[in-house]
Design goal:
By secondary structure, this protein is mainly β. It contains four helices and 23 strands.
Length: about 325
């Protein structure tokens, strides 16, 4: 028998009544988010929770069973909304602290790593919460901008521009700001899932496809240092076509790597889609899953995890796990 349990702290206040929690995490999104819904009244008595909450307060969400808790989210309270008889608390991960303004400037011939080091130093001067984290930068997907301009911009807008233009995986973990290529091996665990044991059959949205069913031609476009468009195409000439724009990429060599990564992420023999499991085992994007089907073992395989959506409410605790390429 599993008894659901939780510990949710917002600033110095601990929530005593929770209707639901949803946590969305993805390597393809810039930020992880969490939504907490709590009742405004219990037994017709107002809880007065809203008076105890302050926007920008740190948030910790721990969920689990039988008093065994797992930290699922660390971040900050973005907003508090009243919706009927409930309060909805919107939260964002530590990138929330990058919302501060940065100076108007024009940077020339600057690498992404050096640019972000400069941005972090600026933000720390006016944000004590960020300064306390002592953020360091681990950039394994570095490239240079011929020119990068910030005008009335926030640090978060700088990160979003880099994310949109080069499509790296950007996230903060253990006070380190990571910038990595999609599908980079981060040395994270592999979690075993068995179709007959810890996968909810009602939440199975997986389709098995052969590699020869996935013919794809990918064209990656960027601009060289003179502002002239450059492009690289990889894949099967008679396949489906996909064009990806990388305006921040200035070399054909880097474009080819990005195009090949996008191609290989979709052309493989194996499953695509997502499936539903429960809170145990714990898993997050960047992990890998080892899928096993006792009835069709030829389809067993290991896959990269692109996203995990975790929900916790009266119907139980569940995770929807989105698969990337087969490893």
């Amino acid at each position: 028998m599993f008894k659901m349990c939780y510990n949710i702290e917002i600033g110095s206040y601990r929530l005593k009544h929770v209707e639901s929690v949803k946590i969305s995490r993805s390597v393809e999104n810039l930020m992880d988010t969490a939504t907490i819904v709590t009742p405004a009244t219990v037994f017709n008595k107002a809880l007065e929770v809203q008076d105890k909450l302050t926007v920008s307060s740190p948030v910790k969400i721990q969920l689990g069973y039988n008093d065994k808790l797992q930290t699922e989210f660390d971040g900050y309270l973005k907003s508090v909304k009243t919706d009927g008889g409930s309060l909805t608390l919107e939260c964002e991960d530590a990138l929330y602290l990058f919302n501060g303004s940065v100076k108007n400037a024009e940077y020339k011939n600057i690498t992404v790593k050096n640019l972000l080091q400069q941005i972090v130093r600026e933000l720390e001067q006016c944000n004590e919460d960020l300064k306390k984290l002592h953020i360091s930068i681990d950039c394994k997907f570095d490239f240079s901008y011929e020119k990068f301009t910030t005008v009335n911009a926030s640090g978060l807008e700088v990160l979003k521009k880099i994310h949109d233009e080069a499509k790296p995986n950007i996230f903060i973990k253990d006070n380190v700001l990571h910038i990595q290529p999609l599908y980079a091996d981060m040395g994270l665990p592999t979690i075993a899932y068995n179709m007959a044991v810890n996968i909810d059959r009602d939440g199975m949205n997986l389709k098995y496809r052969r590699a020869d069913e996935r013919k794809l031609k990918v064209t990656a476009k960027g601009k060289n240092k003179d502002g002239k468009e450059i492009s690289v195409t990889v894949g099967e000439p008679n396949g489906d076509t996909e064009t990806i724009n990388f305006p921040g990429i200035t070399t054909e060599a880097q474009l080819r790597k990005l195009a090949q990564t996008a191609h290989d992420g979709k052309v493989y023999e194996g499953y695509e889609g997502d499936f539903t499991s429960w809170l145990v085992p714990y898993i997050e994007p960047g992990y890998s899953v080892q899928l096993r089907d006792n009835d069709d073992e030829v389809k067993n395989g290991k896959y990269y995890v692109l996203k995990v959506d975790t929900t916790f409410d009266s119907s139980g605790g569940k995770r929807v796990i989105g698969l990337g390429k087969k490893l």
